Amino acid sequence: MPAYTSDGGHACAPFQGIHFSCEGTGQVAAGTGGRPGNGRQRAVRPYRKRKPLPALIFIGVLGVAAVTVWVNVISSSGDIAEAVACEPRPMPPADTTFTPLPYDALATTSPLPPSQVEVTVLNANNTRGEASIATEALRQLGFTRVTDPGNDEVYTGDTVAECHGQIRFGAPGERAARTVHLLNPCLELIRDNREDPTVDLAIGTKFNDVSPSGVAVEILDRLKSWSAENEHTETDEQSARQDGPVIDQELLTQTLPKHC
After folding, report:
1. With b meaning 16 or more CB within 10 Å and e meaning fewer, what string describes 56-81?
2. Which alpha helices (H) appear in the chain, and where do they start and end?
3. Which stretches of the chain drop beneath a pLDDT of 50?
4. Could you tell me the CA-to-CA distances from 63 to 54, 59, 69, 71 in Å, in that order?
5. What is the H or E stretch that residue 119 is in?
6. Which end of the chain is more exposed for a tag (fewer CB within 10 A), N or C?
7. What is the pLDDT of residue 13?
């Protein structure tokens, strides 16, 4: 047989016991170390490199978005802090110290039932009768220990508090102050050196009545329900401890100001 390989469609045939391979496009004699035949070789597709530019652009867009979000958060926090601060800055009476706190300083503090909060409303905006109106509104919300209203000793005469107002309290009154803060989260928090759990609510020129948010009302209702259920079962130890129900932290966080 003259043909040892199959080129161009010819059949491959063995020759003297030697078999020729016809696989692929370049035929090689099996077992002889033969050279490739003259068949058409298959084109090898080169490796296609992926361009990194689209991925880099996407990552860049995500980075810009993240930075924008954080800038807005920081800017918003700064705006709230500025809006909450009363002007002019208060000058405390003799033997009293005032320490302004961040607007979210009591965010993780558990509030007391309103019936356990001893609070006094003070007029710091020189508007006649507004402290009395606010006092009655507190009573309607369950603040049964609210005292008679009075005039503020810090902002007096023509000097008024240009703000929503201030909540003034000492270290023992943090939980009571948290309850009052539910009424208006734009009230400035002022810690003084009093040693009892009483709270003063000094209302400023931007005070818009007592109108707690829906979430704040829900929390106050839970606090009042707990107080009613435990009114006749409370022990002396519980009374001294001024106990109350556990309020979900996520719910409390929703009462922080979004803007003021």
Report:
1. eeeeeeeeeeeeeeeeeeeeeeeebb
2. 53-84, 130-140, 174-181, 214-229, 236-241, 249-253
3. 1-11, 15, 20-34, 36, 64-75, 235-241
4. 14, 6, 10, 12
5. strand 119-123
6. N
7. 52
The residues spanned by each domain of the chain are 1-41, 99-253
Contact between 176 and 116 under an 8 Å Cβ cutoff? The reply is: yes
Residue type at position 52: P
* Residue 10 amino acid letter: H
User: What is the pTM assigned to this prediction?
Assistant: 0.69
Which residues are bridge partners to 122 per DSSP? 150, 202
Show the tokens assigned to 53. 């530019």
CB 93 within 8 A of CB 153: yes
Output the pLDDT for position 66.
Answer: 46
In 3D, which of 139, 116, 138, 141 has the Cα closest to residue 203? 138
Give the burial string for 41-51 (b: 16+ CB within 10 Å, else e): eeeeeeeeeee
- Contact indicator for 21, 28 with CB cutoff of 8 Å: yes
What is the strand order of the sheet 119-123 is part of? Answer: 99-101, 188-191, 165-169, 199-203, 119-123, 150-151
Distances (CA, A) of 197 to 1, 67, 98, 119, 191: 115, 42, 16, 9, 12
User: If 0-12 CB within 10 Å is exposed, 13-18 middle and 19+ buried, where does residue 180 land?
Assistant: buried
